[in-house]
Each structure stands twice: as structure tokens, then as C-alpha cells.
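Input chain follows. Return C-alpha cells only.
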Amino acid sequence: MKQNIFYYIVLLSIAFSSLLILAAFFGGGGHKAESEDCFSTFDQGVRDKPIELQVYPLWHKHQTPGFQEQLRNAARSVRPHFRLRKIPIVLVYHALRVWGPKSPSISVDHRLDSQREMDTSWLYRTLTDQSYFEKYCRFTINSLLVPSPYGVRVVTTVDGDWGAEWGSSHVGKYLQVMADLGVSPNAKLRMRHNRTARLVDVIRDEALRYDYSEEPEWICCGLCRYLKLSQWRNRFGEDLSFEELARRLVVKPFGEGSCEGTHVPMALATLLNVNERSQLISSSMAEAIRARLKEFSRHLSTHQNSDGSWSLNWHNRRNSLDGSKNQFIPSWNGPILTTGHHLEWMMLCPPDLRPPPYILDAAVLHLLRNLPDQRDIIESDFHAYMPASHAVRALLYAFDYQWACPDWLR
């Protein structure tokens, strides 16, 4: 008799737990109604649209017809001609940052529909519409966007879930790309089970979920362009601020972080750029960022190779030569990765914070000369697409373009 009672208690417990899980999964907004007041208060600190970055292009001589043709040839090296059954989200991110959200008639070969003319609005929809994600990007994860108690969570490679390596590459990368594309916080997201949300739900989730144990480079680049708030409190009740994010970035040693540490000056340049239009950090911290960017520029000016490139060990850190650390980076790709990343953040800085013009000229010429020769390799190894796309984006900035022109592909 006692065994039967215990058996029924276990069954009831399982049934009750299942009901709670189903209610949480299928419930309206993914969070309790009593939290809506708190969320709406946070949402008031979100801008109507992301702040557009101020770009500081290079000189008029780069607008000559000869340079224009070289730019077109360089851009063709990263045309979105993907030969994969399922396209990794990282490829979608980097293609959109070059070609923009609405460029028409770009050839895409994904071996599902054979080769056809598509526009990059299709690529954009894989980030915002579950049906497009399922058709073109779903492989080891069912969704890129999932409900959370704080809004909508972006599945990332650091989540630790099985298959998450096919999710977003870094915490905050999704928002950085959306900010680059100028996507409104009110933009609609279509999720599984016909659920809808808005980009503001992702912004809120990223802000409330983040803590300082995670890398700050991408979360800083995304949030600083969407938030009016200079400080907020996360889900653990910890106080977060752009001031503290900046402080942690400023003290990072040269070369520390992803892509040989090149995303650290990128984040600092982005935050300083935004701060010029909307104050998010103190004047003393802004000066500290300026001083740090000048240090980067002085160091890079004295460590540039004779061909205008920067090597993977630009920072002269011994661990940069560790083969295990760079095993996924082909030897040919080292200068493209480093030079492209550095030139990109330099284009977000006024002239007094970046290297002298002849240093920048040499970097531009290196990329213009070398990118076209890598097109076949880039198409055969999707890992090479990402650093090459940073190089092309840097060239677009240098030539005063927002996006690559699809006419260059014809």
C-alpha cells in the first residue's frame, strides 16, 4: 500500500512539473506578467533606433577610377556564394556587414535550390524569422532565438548546449550586427510555434543576462548603440555600466582576446564614437580610451611590415606563435585577418587617434593587392570568409561607402 502511495506521488510530481514547463514554454511573452512593469521601465532606456557610427574615410586620392576598380575586385572576394547545405550564422553575420540588409541580386549557391539570384534580405531574415533559419541555417540547433524569462535569448557558442557551436559566435554579436544594419528595436522577430517578439526583447535579455565574466568586446559594441542607459542592473542584481566595461577593455594587454586581440580596440573605438553623440561614460574614461587608442596606433605604426600588413604576432606576445592557438587560421590568412581588423577600427577614429596617413595608405594597398588572389581559397574554406569580410568592410569605410555595391558582382 505504501509503495502504491509513493508511486502515485511520483506520478503527480512528474505531471505537475510537466505542466509548469509547458506553461512557461507556451506562455505569452516568455516571462511572468508581474515582471512587465520592470521590463517596460528598462525598455524606456532603449533608443528608437541604433546610433549610426561616424566613419572617418581616407583621402580624396582613393576615389580615383583605378582605386575604384581595385575596391570592386577586393569586394568580389567575399561575395556570398556559399556552397554549404546549411549556412553557419557566422557567415550570415559577416556577409551582411559587407553587403547590407537589402542589396539585390547576389548569387548564392547553397545546393538546396541550386544556383539562383537572391538578395541579402534573405540573409537578414535568417536572423529574424524562424522559417528562414530552419530552411537555410538549422543544423545542430533548432532555433537561433528562444524565449527567456527576460525576453528573447540568442543561442551562442558559449552556452554549452549540444550543437551550440552552430549558434551565434559571441555574446553580443547578434546585437552588434543588428546595430550595423540599423535595425530598429521595434523590428519584429518570428519564432517557433508562431510566436512573435521584437528586437527590444533581445536587447533587454542581453543586458539583463550579461555579467562581467563574459568577454565584453561584442556586448559593448551592440548595447552602447541601443541603450540610452549608461548603467543598469543585471539578473543577479549586479550593477553594470559602460564605464566599467570600458575600464576592463582599456587595461587588456595587447593581443588578448579573439582574433589576436583586435576586437578590443574595435570596442573602444565604437564606444568612444557613440559617446561623442550620447554620453555613456565619464570624460575621464573617454580620455583614457583616447590614450589607449593612441597607444595601439603608436605600437602598430612601429610594427607594420614592409608590405603594409600587420602579422598575427603584431602584439609581440609569445603565445601568438603557439601553433595550437592558431591551428584554424591558415598561414595565408594571418595578415588579412590582422590588417583588416585593425584598419576597420581605425576608420572609426578621428585622425589624431590613429596612425599617420602613410601607415593607413600602406595597409589599404596591401588589402587591395592581396584580397582578389584569395577568392578561390575563401570560397573553399568558410573559415576564411570572416577575416576577409572584415578587410573588405575596412576598405569600404576607407573609400567612404556604407555597403558594397551589388553591381560590382556582375
